[in-house]
Amino acid sequence: MTLDFSPVLESWRFLLGGLGLTLLLAASTVVCSLVLGGTVGLARCYGPAWLRAPLVFYIDSMRAVPVLVVLVWTYFALPIVTGAVLPPFWAALAALSAHIGAYVAEIVRAGVSSIRPGQTRAALALGMSRAQAVRDVVLPQAIVRMLPAFGSIISIAIKDTAIATVIAVPEYMNRSQTLAGESFHPIEVFLTAMAVYFIILFPVTRAVDMIYVRLAHLGRS
Amino acid sequence: MSRNDTAAVVLTYRDVRKQFGDFVALAGVSMEVHKTEVVCLIGPSGSGKSTLLRCTNGLEIIDGGEILLDGCALPRDPRSMRAVRQRMGMVFQNFELFPHKTALANVASGPLTVMRLPRREAQDRAAALLEKVGLADKAASYPANLSGGQQQRVAIARALAMQPEVMLFDEPTSALDPETIGEVLSVMKALAEEGMTMLVVTHEMTFARRVADHVVVFERGAIIEQGPPKQIFDAPLVGRTREFLSHLGWAG
Amino acid sequence: MRFDWSVVWANAGALAGGTELTVLLAAVTMALAIPGGILLALMRLSGSRLLAGTSAGFTELFRNLPLILVIYAAYYILPITVGVAFSPFATGLIALCLNVSAYNGETFRAGIASIRRGQSEAALALGMSRWQAMREVVLPQAVQRVLPVLASTWVSLFKDTSLVSVIAVGELAYTAMRIRSQTFRVLELLTAMAAIYWALGYPQAKLVDWMNRRFGVSE
Predict the structure, then answer these.
(1) Which among B100, B102, B152, B154 is the top mutation candidate for probing chain C, defined by the most C β-carbons within 10 Å of its own β-carbon?
(2) Residue range A143-166, pLDDT digits in tens
(3) Which residues in chain C are closer than 8 Å to A57, comparing Cβ atoms?
(4) A70 reaches C (C-beta below 8 A)
(5) N- or C-end of chain A: fewer Cβ atoms within 10 A?
(6) How far is it, in rounded angstroms, from Cα C181 to Cα C188?
(7) Candidate CATH numbers 3.40.50.2000, 3.30.70.20, 1.10.3720.10, 1.25.40.890; the one for domain C6-215
(8) C139 in contact with chain B, both atoms CB, cutoff 8 A
(9) Where along chain A do its domains lie?
(10) Which of C1, C64, C163, C198 to mutate to test binding with chain A, by most A CBs within 10 Å of its CB?
(11) What is the predicted pLDDT for the residue at C93?
């Protein structure tokens, strides 16, 4: 079996454009899911009781349904319901952020509840308000514990952008498929894709592993 | 009790050395253990007593010198070491019972897996040994439901199930509540009276004084004094021994 | 805009068939990926640098590739390299197994490493070989300890089976989207698809939560 990478090399600009979109989508997803998930997670822990049930429903539903399904539904079905059509990139951003946001919310909940209640009590005993106690005592400690998990969100986001190909977002996976079809050299194209994704993801997972090790001792009370 | 020099030598240590990185755990240790003897190793923490024990059954490999079992040097390769280990029993400070097996299954582990005895025979042997250490009624209990003293007695039974020539005890009572230390020491005393050859690392000076035939005092990886209990505890020859014992509050 | 939900009931049989295939795919994958993961973990913990390196390399590779890419790559690369024309189902199965085995390998490695050294020492002291110590003492405890993690992995796997729809494996996602293309009832079918996944996935996620509470080891 001889491999001919020339179609890949000739279309490097095409592929690079896809890669740029992958990274853009991933970064945007990370930011949006952190904001969304952080809000939901905190609202679940400290918000009014009536809010808890719908938020838990949202979180658990996203854990139950595959990313692919959320993506497809957001792009194809949501416009039918709302009448507003979302371009592929924005549909993907919304769907991925909603899906990953649920995981972030869970991370926040787990992080916050891992802080001993005594810490909050001590803060309140000093005369702090609940909000101050959360902001100054609980969250700083909790965030340290959540960092490794947040790190893995980056990795998950990058991998999930590849699924956006099914709703025709022209990110790297999608561009690879297009090129594979046009060039009749799918093996070389996908081998290249594997190399590209690995090169992007490997440092991220390594960095997360290192953060885990560094912060492990801080995570124990 | 005094040392019977004419009894056969079971274990010989000749200038045994062991290092962990820069730390010298054993700096040339030489001693002998005779058949049916109870030898107690005492000394401050980190003085090498446990290391010597672990070198004896190959859990650690020595860096220099030699250890002889019945006159034959301990092998270095894992396969032959396995055969040697089957002739020695070891009891650990934190019992190390297998939590996913009942007391009976723990005791039967060796005969079943290593000696490949038929299940019936292994279980009968295990039941008899549990009876011997006073825990026949706990055969079906899991370690989580046993007290520390009970677990250690099961651990002793487990080691005995292999019918070893020598029993090695690595601080068997250090992890026990004071109330349960007695029950374990009784089992060990009974074992000694039956004539088992025992090498015991311990901080229980009263036990050593009463049961040991020979006491070896360690400090910083070397033997500073050895002799009968009467000598070590009542009239030590070396000043450091006296200091060590007085630090433990040993009033004789 | 009129919605015609009857199209869902009309195709209930096909959707049920797709669901069956989803479950089958997940079950077979896990059945293969658990021994696969144990094998990878044992290789990693063996003294041999070759085995440990291969295992580490394999794990790192599949942890750092999007699954959808592995599926496409398997689809195009396997037939040429292995010389056999695999069915889409088999291709999807292989891709899923490779992916999940890598994660299970890490899970079991951590699980085995979490068993106190004293346990294997006690086993060795009885005269067991390293393999006997692993089989009788360490692995049984490690498996028990990693059950909650394996359950989480199962839930993820169940969802990931939807990705093999891209190579036309007739599981739930593919079936639902095929019916959508045929009937043009987009909202109805996509919502039905989401609802079925939800109905299956929600209890599974709750079960994992329960397992974590019941069996989880708190750090």
Answers:
(1) B100
(2) 888 888 888 899 999 999 999 999
(3) none
(4) yes
(5) N
(6) 12
(7) 1.10.3720.10
(8) no
(9) 19-169
(10) C64
(11) 96
